[in-house]
Write a structure and sequence with these properties.
By secondary structure, this protein is an all-alpha fold. The protein is built from five helices and no strands. The longest helix has 12 residues.
Amino acid sequence: MPRKSKLRGAAVLTDRIRRLHPDVYARYLRGEFSSVYAAAVAAGVMRPQLCLPRRPVGRLAAALRRQLDDGELAELTENLNE
């Protein structure tokens, strides 16, 4: 029977980065990333996540403007108007 890993959360990411992307792991150990999550995104282990406020709608729009370029905003507008 396979043994279950006792690693959780950040430890799982750190282990995966160490095994699959030793170059990024070395940079992480040198302190080049602000978090394990940032190193995981740089390694391609995770996709960047986006947290958005739901209300008020003006805050949602401002957050989207910060995160998306003009082309992406135009595409989003088209999709919302469908």
